[in-house]
Amino acid sequence: MQIFNFQHIQSTLPNAPGIYKYFDADGELIYIGKAKNIRKRVSSYFTKSNHSFKTHELVKRIQKIEFTIVRSEHDALLLENALIKELTVNPPKAFLGIDAPDFNLGVEKKLKAAGNFINVDPNTATIDSGQTRVVFDWTYNHKSHQDRFKAAGKSWKIFTPKGAEVGSWYNAGVSPWAPHPACARLWMEFIYSPEGSNSWAKGGASPVIWPMMIKDKTASKAAIAVIGSGTGVARVASADQLAKANTYLVANWAAAVGTR
Questions:
Q1: Rounded mean pLDDT of 227-247?
Q2: Predicted pLDDT of residue 227
Q3: Of 243, 240, 211, which Cα lies nearest the Cα of 227?
Q4: What pLDDT, on a 0 to 100 scale, did the predictor assign at position 180?
Q5: Could you tell me the residue ranges of all domains in the chain?
Q6: Cα three-residue angle 215-220-234, rounded to 5 degrees
């Protein structure tokens, strides 16, 4: 990827309020922002070194910058909001597009043969009773089980096989009646910041920027105590891969582990 020469165009940016647009090498619009001072705001992307992972990935892909000058910071906010609604923005999708692992039922078959695979949907009752001693589930959902078992003097272990990390995404709802027109974007920026990611990690989730946070020491001790300091990156299946996995399960599940 060609490195964008920001110094070449820095002097052409105005010291005025307005909006700025970033484009990637394919000419795709990847970001729209507002600024009280366009030159200062845009320059901060290229001169600071303590960016969040999200911003770091964005800057790597910038190949063209456009801007529009307005009369005031308030006008910039209004224009930004209007453009976000009007234009299609394709932000960089860090960690997306990575091939999902091969899908098969080999582990389930072995557990079934050993008597440790019970073909029911696990829940708090089946876990507490010992009916489902081995559970395949999102790690985030099992922090509460760990806390409950610990309080009872028992242990509930969470294990992620190295090289087989699989992830998914949570939807974040934002009210359309939020008083700030950029509420959704500001909320997402918080979620993908170290501060927001530490909050999620303390609840048992694995933030997408966790490897970077461990490296640059922005991961809090409280968060590390919950999810550890591992830096494996979860692979996310595409819609096509999920559809193929579903087809495979429909055709092979009953033969491998039986029916309910």
A1: 77
A2: 86
A3: 211
A4: 79
A5: 6-86, 106-165+235-257, 167-227
A6: 55
Give the burial class of 225: count Cβ atoms within 10 A of its Cβ; 0-12 exposed, 13-18 middle, 19 or more buried.
Answer: exposed
Tell me the C-alpha distance between 54 and 73, whole Å. 25
Altogether, the residues listed in the chain come to a count of 260
Starting at the earlier edge strand, list the strands of the sheet with 29-35.
29-35, 18-23, 64-69
Q: 232 is written with which tokens?
A: 């494996």
What is the DSSP code (8-state) at residue 5? -
User: Coil, strand or helix: which one is 176?
Assistant: coil
Q: What is the pLDDT of residue 232?
A: 67
Q: Is the pLDDT of residue 28 over 80?
A: yes
Q: Could you tell me how far CA 70 lies from the centroid of its own chain?
A: 34
Q: Into which CATH architecture does domain 6-86 fall?
A: 3-Layer(aba) Sandwich (3.40)
Q: Cβ-count burial of 214 within 10 angstroms (0-12 exposed, 13-18 middle, 19+ buried)? A: middle
Amino acid at 197: S
Of residues 81, 88, 62, 74, the one with CA closest to residue 2: 62
What pLDDT is attached to residue 22?
93
pLDDT tens digit string along 118-161?
A: 888 888 999 998 888 888 888 888 888 888 998 999 888 888 77
- Going by pLDDT thresholds of 50, 70 and 90, the confidence category of residue 99 is very low
Indicate the pTM of the whole model: 0.54
- What gap in Å lies between CA 218 and CA 220, rounded to an integer? 6
String of b and e for 5-23 (b: at least 16 CB within 10 Å)?
ebeeeeeebeebbbbbbbb
Q: Where would I find the H helices in 11-72?
A: 38-47, 53-61
